[in-house]
Amino acid sequence: MIDYNQQILTPYDIGNRRLRNRLAVAPMTRVSGTEAGLATAEIARYYERFAKGGFGLVITEGLYTDQKYAQGYPFQPGLSDVEQAKAWRRVTDLVRAHNGSVFAQLMHAGALNQGNRFETATAAPSAVRPKGTQMKFYYGEGQYPLPQAMSDEDIADAIAGFAQAAVLATHTAGFDGIEIHGANGYLLDQFLTDYTNQRDDRWGGNVQARIRLTLEVIKAVRAAVGTLAPVGVRISQSKVNDYEHKWAEGEAAAEVIFGSLKDAGVDFIHVTEFEAWKPAFIEGNASLVELARRYASQVAIIANGGLDVPHHAEQVLRDGADMIALGKAALANPDLPSRLATHTTLAEFDASILGPIANIKDSELALA
């Protein structure tokens, strides 16, 4: 039997980074940067409160990586130039001042573009319109635009953007680690997904070919930052525009994906599912966390998805997770680790925080 409070509050190492406990703040898009993509004083206070409240790791919202097709939302902060990187320095300094660690999540939106100040067109593996409609709480409206299929040059530019953003994150902004966003329907996940990737070149076809772009990004980022900082990747089946999606090849896909990520040398895999403790596929009882542990042994596993309930968190820890990442529970309780340590009741999440626009509210900063 796992004692959730006791295990989750113990220190843990990811790569060369020692974290004071196994609780992370999950990445959450908050569209609160400047129009030029700069992190603000408000953003710095927002992230500082999680470190002040005891979280061992804070993972930022997705930061766009280049000044071409990467940006997905208006007022999304970026890491695409030196000015943006310097703006993040106050965030990283404040988090470390409270004995926390902070990783930059690097993101390319691909076809899920609701506002890009650099390009009017959108780019994706294939010219396939994304499912669903744009998210209103991120300033979206109506259908997603039909993307253009990326050329080899576009793909090379995207890879280079991730690598350059990683250098800016570690050398200029002062981040402690890098999370590559390969989940939730954004560009790398679009290449991984069978129905959004209809290519017949080396970037499309079977699952081994479809995970290739993620592996090339990992390789480029690792070459750029060396051993200076841990490098990991976020992986999911579900998407912001398709919650019900499952990998077409089932567990065979999980074996290829997680095995390939392990072989690529990532320090951690961040597995996110809508309900992370449930079976990943109709056939079989294993959760995606359990499959990640099975096929990526020795790699740190972070689990995310509906884990604010202790017995759900205990289940994924039994399945092999090393850390738990919390989203809504962290928004409601920026001091959640401190509350767990003192057995203090947790506050309920107030959904109005994320509406009508999911930007940072004054009421949240008052919790700091």
Question: In short, what is this structure?
Answer:
With 368 residues, the chain is of the alpha/beta class. Helices cover 34% and strands 14% of the residues.
Q: Per CATH, what is the topology?
A: TIM Barrel
Q: Helices and strands: which structural class?
A: alpha/beta
Q: Spans of 5+ residues with little confidence (pLDDT < 50)?
A: none
Discrete helix count = 13
Count the strands?
12
Please write the CATH class name: Alpha Beta
CATH architecture: Alpha-Beta Barrel
| Shape verdict | globular
Q: What string, H for helix and E for strand, traces the elements in order?
A: HEEEHEHEEEHEHHHEHEHEHEHHH
State the end-to-end distance: 34 Å
Tell me roughly what share of residues is in helical segments. 25-40%
Specify Rg, calculated over alpha carbons: 19 Å
Largest sheet: 8 strands, parallel, barrel
Percent in strands: 5-15%
Q: What is the number of independent domains?
A: 1
Give the overall average pLDDT. 96
In the sheet with the most strands, the strands line up as: 3-4-5-8-9-10-11-12
CATH superfamily, by name, is: Aldolase class I
Task: Walk me through this protein's architecture.
It contains 13 helices and 12 strands. By secondary structure, the protein is an alpha/beta fold. Strand 1 and strand 2 (17-19) form a beta hairpin. The longest helix has 21 residues, at 152-172. The protein is globular and about 55 Å long. Pfam families: Oxidored_FMN. Residues 8-344 form the NADH:flavin oxidoreductase/NADH oxidase N-terminal domain.
